[in-house]
Structures are given as structure tokens and as C-alpha cells.
């Protein structure tokens, strides 16, 4: 049964592991009205995020060219308080990443689509 969302949002998924990024994008697009763009490295994720304001940026913490943490900090600096939701994910222990305060949420790989959609649907930068 598909998960229904109230509003469609633009989501950027950044992960250097192609299969993981593409599969997550397909699952999100099939389960919701959200529009998903995939970046295979941190630099491309940042370019996409600055070129057209997404609602959510889902960042693998360990990526080539620019880490997910560096991308998240650059997005925070660029957009300020009215920024996209910044969600980090990692295959390693996420407790230290969570404590850094860089991301709004941190998820352990593999990312559960239902949990992710709940976070995405709940994000409202005006609150």
C-alpha cells in the first residue's frame, strides 16, 4: 500500500553508491507525490541545492569531493533559517553525527522509506 503525502516536495538525494541512491529515489517517487533528484557526490548535491531551492536534502555523510556534513553546512549558510530539511544518513554509527547538530535528522542505512517519508512530510521550516 503506498504511503500518501499531503504535499509534493522537491527532494535531493546525494549518495555516491549509485544503486542505493537510485533505488531510494524510485521508492520515494513510487510511494509519494514527491519529486526526486539524485546527485552522486557532494559537489553536485550542493550545486543542485543552490540552483533551485529543494524542500529536503538527504545526504550520505561519507561522499567523495565534498562530505555530506560540508554540504549541509554550506546549505545552512546559504539559506539561513528558511532552509531545506537536512537529513544525513550513514552506514556507520550515527550517534556522533547526530550529536554534531549539523543535520535536522540522522538515519542509519538502510533508510526505511516509511520513516523517511514521515520526516519529509512533517518538515515545515516556518515552524
CATH top level class name: Alpha Beta
Tell the overall outline: globular
Oligomer: single chain
- List the domain count as a whole number: 1
Low-confidence stretches: 1-5
What's the rounded overall pLDDT mean? Answer: 87
Tell me what portion of residues adopts beta-strand conformation: 15-25%
What integer value in Å does the Rg equal?
Answer: 13 Å
Number of helices: 5
* CATH architectural label: 3-Layer(aba) Sandwich
The CATH topology is Rossmann fold
What class would the helix/strand composition place it in?
A: alpha/beta
Please give the alpha-carbon distance between the first and last residues.
30 Å
- Strand/helix succession: EHEHEHEHEH
**Biggest sheet layout:** 5 strands, parallel
Report on this model:
- The protein is α/β, with parallel strands linked by helices and 127 residues long.
- It has a single domain, classed as 3-Layer(aba) Sandwich (Rossmann fold).
- Helix content is 41%, strand content 20%.
- It is built from 5 helices and 5 strands, in the order E-H-E-H-E-H-E-H-E-H.
- It has helices at 18-31, 42-51, 68-79, 95-100, 113-122; strands at 10-14, 35-39, 56-60, 85-90, 105-108.
- Strands 2-1-3-4-5 form a 5-stranded parallel β-sheet, sandwiched between helices.
- Helix 2 (42-51) packs parallel to helix 3.
- The longest helix has 14 residues, at 18-31.
- The radius of gyration is 13 Å and the shape is globular.
- The model is unreliable at 1-5 (pLDDT under 50).
